[in-house]
Amino acid sequence: MNYFKTTYIVSTLFCVALISIVSSCVNKTDTITEQSTLEDYTVGEQWTWKWQRSVNGKVQAQGKDYKEVVNYKNTLGFYYGGTDTLEIATILNRKPSKASRYRWPLEVGKKWKYEVEWKNNEGTSGKTSQDAEVISFEEFTVDGGKFMAYKIEFKGRITNSRGFDGKLVDVWWYAPALKSYIKHTQDDGEGLYINELTAYSK
Length: 202
Hints:
The chain has helices at residues 2-29, 88-92; strands spanning 32-33, 46-55, 58-72, 75-79, 85-87, 106-107, 111-119, 125-142, 145-160, 165-175, 180-187, 192-201. The protein is an alpha+beta fold.
């Protein structure tokens, strides 16, 4: 009698655990996230990141990035500090292109081609071409807290007008609840760049 009772209990616990695991996996992989709308933002909402650039394990530069939702030209804007403010609607309404970082909606397994031509403050121009893929949607911890986030990998090459041609790997973690990335790493073969959320508030 005890044998059958023990077997029943063990079998029941196993089934419960299996159902829990399968349910967890389904929730993480079946999530689909659309692009945020203007109504999703609140005046006073703030994001703060810390960043650093390292070469051969030695920090070459570091600093902070900041963004806040403010009233701007009878609508809402992103204030980045100093005199930099951009209308949120303008950013959200940009037409999708190969230069768009994200392709909405986001879901695990989605792939696209990311290509952008750029020019930096020093006058160097270049081109970035990468294959992007949404790898997972799971809980991820940064200095600013613990959030459900998409892990998106971008792998390809970067070239510039100074003759540089090399591999470039970017990884972004995008948290839908924050309408923003919470971490970004970039490895260009010469150094490592890391940008991580340290604070978020409404």
